[in-house]
Design goal:
heterodimer; A: 329 residues; alpha+beta; SH3 type barrels; 2 domains; 7-stranded antiparallel beta sheet; 5 helices; B: 284 residues; mainly alpha; 63% helix; 0% strand; elongated; disordered C terminus
């Protein structure tokens, strides 16, 4: 049911209140941050042969980990806690590693108040997830596990956010306000948090098997375009950090990047894995799970219906040869 | 409190880690760590008070009581459970210092200071925050102007109810043309990177811009504020939703690499061609 203007007004008021709270904590953090230059920090240098006592333990879905500090220190590092969750996109041998945030208030629709009492675990930064190999979880200490009810709840939330579904009503008040304005300080916060987790998961710390499909892969845009933000906000989507979707052909040779074009359509660009243009699929088309087809691909670009954006299943060339697709983000 | 300041030693920290709770540490150890906790607590509180003196007064009875319990505040904030696993932050402190054995104590203290800073932030937010009393029209953020909550989250109002889309595009193009000469090279690089989804701390960006990420962030924020300030002045009657729509279109125009005259540099830098070409496609 479409909301009336009064309900919309109330929603916006609540969002502004949440934003005010977040901005207050952000500004507070900035005030306390200065002067850190006076405190000695470990000299950034790479350890030879790996750091001492990386104690691996048996971990599984629902376990909360404290990631061990990386070999090369970020100047103002903080402990990074993260939870292991099942990947909603079935992938063999991979989990999601989802970090917790530094603040008590969620910044964006992609951050969610967990209800856990421990201060480092108050807000889950779902947008900043990474896919990790089950056999190569980054060096960590296991700090606790979620109980069964919590595991189900966390799984439901992350599934909604990654699959671009609307959160259940009772969870919607627990996410942050939409990010609309290009001058919003949250842009800077998101970059810093992404960088902080990237720094934790650098090569050489046991995380070499990290999937390159993670949001930190440089060729995948992590920052939504401004038009995306308005569309995401207008549709009350709680997904954050995804520009429109990225697929890979199952042989890994090609990337299919999806971008919003207007309210009804998306633009799709097919490129080689190294980022160079490809005309290999010109005069072909993309096909969705429900059988819809895109317009014909020309110069590596195709137009498709918005409804197809989240459910492409194959790339078909001019000769009719089918290349299955897997969703990366 | 008139206890003399004492610096901590490696033995103090090791003992604390072994016995788990400061209350069961030997008195000299507890004394040293309590003193450290108090000093750091006051350091951050004074830093905050020096900038917002009207909100917290160092020295009143309430803050003195909290100062006594600074170490407890630190431990309560950092732990995620009462068992040993829940106090893994101690292992984090020591693992961090293992990389720099020559300065072990200093590095442990710096790590503990970082944790104390977070604890003080939470404390101030709980005890002294007045966020709910802030006006919607109060400008937030840094820079010459900052943005109000109403600007950051305007009321939902489709721009086409106010002005046709093509007029918005025309206005954005005109405004972009007027503002372009005011952008220096750092501004242009920051705008392009943000539009291309490249984080400003990317080493290639830092090398290209020949400056640090803080300067690039400020350049971006300054540019956005300049655009929004101009719109606010010129179209004051049109409302925040219109202002946001025009700002976003103007920034999109200004972020075009051809307009910014950065194409040749981007070509040679090795950024993903797909990203650059995609940007060209979208701006065509």
């Amino acid at each position: 049911m479409k909301k009336d203007r009064f309900s919309q007004s109330n929603d916006r008021a609540a969002e502004r209140q949440r934003l005010a709270e977040w901005l207050a904590e952000w500004e507070l953090d900035g005030l306390l941050d200065e002067g850190e230059q006076q405190i000695p920090h470990p000299a950034p240098r790479r350890l030879s042969g790996g750091s001492a006592s990386y104690a691996q333990s048996d971990v599984g879905v629902g376990d909360i980990l404290l990631l061990q500090p990386p070999a090369i220190r970020h100047p103002l590092d903080r402990p990074v806690y993260a939870v292991l969750l099942d990947d909603p996109k079935p992938s063999v041998g991979q989990w999601l590693l989802v970090p917790f945030g530094p603040f008590a208030v969620p910044a964006t629709p992609g951050e969610w108040v967990t209800g856990l009492r421990a201060e480092p675990l108050r807000v889950l930064c779902c947008w900043n997830y990474r896919r990790v190999s089950i056999s190569a979880v980054p060096p960590h200490w296991r700090v606790r596990g979620l109980n069964k009810g919590q595991r189900l709840l966390f799984a439901e939330v992350i599934r909604c956010l990654i699959d671009d579904r609307v959160l259940p009503e009772r969870q919607r008040s627990r996410v942050g306000p939409p990010l609309l304005h290009p001058g919003d300080p949250r842009h800077r916060y998101l970059e810093e948090e992404r960088e902080r987790v990237d720094c934790q998961l650098e090569p050489g710390t046991g995380a070499d098997d990290l999937s390159t499909d993670s949001p930190s892969a440089p060729y995948i845009s992590e920052t939504p375009g401004f038009d995306d933000l308005e569309r995401l906000a207008a549709e009350s989507r709680t997904r954050y950090g995804l520009r429109g979707g990225v697929y890979l052909t199952t042989d890994g040779a090609c990337i299919v990047a999806v971008y919003p074009l207007d309210a009804e359509r998306v633009k799709v660009r097919i490129v080689n894995r190294d980022g160079t243009s490809t005309a290999a699929f010109d005069r072909g088309y993309l096909e969705a799970e429900d059988g819809q087809r895109s317009e014909r691909i020309e110069t590596g670009v195709a137009i498709a219906a918005q409804s197809m954006a989240m459910q492409f299943r194959s790339l078909v060339d001019a000769e009719g040869q089918v290349r299955p697709l897997k969703r990366s983000r | 409190m008139n206890q003399p300041d004492t610096s901590t030693s490696e033995q103090d920290w090791r003992t604390w880690e072994q016995v788990c709770a400061i209350d069961v540490c030997p008195e000299p150890v507890a004394h040293a760590l309590h003193g450290f906790g108090r000093r750091r607590f006051l350091h951050y509180l004074q830093r905050y008070a020096s900038r917002c003196g009207h909100r917290v007064r160092i020295g009143d009875a309430f803050t003195r009581q909290d100062e006594q319990h600074a170490w407890h505040l630190f431990e309560t904030h950092a732990q995620v459970g009462r068992d040993r696993a829940g106090k893994a932050y101690k292992k984090w402190l020591f693992a961090r210092a293992a990389a720099d054995p020559a300065r072990w104590v200093a590095v442990v203290e710096s790590g503990a200071s970082l944790l104390m800073r977070d604890a003080v932030r939470s404390y101030l937010r709980r005890e002294h925050s007045a966020a709910f009393m802030e006006s919607l029209q109060q400008q937030r953020g840094s820079g010459e102007t900052g943005f109000t909550l109403e600007e950051l989250l305007p009321d939902a109002q489709a721009p086409h109810e106010v002005l046709e889309e093509r007029e918005l595009t025309y206005l954005a193009e005109r405004l972009a043309g007027e503002l372009l000469p005011e952008l220096d090279r750092t501004d242009r690089i920051a705008l392009w990177c943000r539009s291309a989804g490249i984080i400003l701390s990317d080493p290639r960006v830092l090398s290209w811009a020949e400056c640090g990420k803080s300067k690039l962030h400020r350049a971006y924020e300054r540019s956005v504020e300049r655009i929004c300030h101009r719109i606010r002045k010129t179209y004051a009657e049109e409302g925040d939703a219109f202002g946001l729509a025009l700002a976003r279109r103007t920034i999109a125009k200004l972020s075009d690499e051809k307009m910014l005259e950065l194409s040749a540099e981007i070509e040679g830098l090795g950024f993903s061609i797909s990203k650059r070409e995609l940007n060209e496609e979208e701006n065509r």
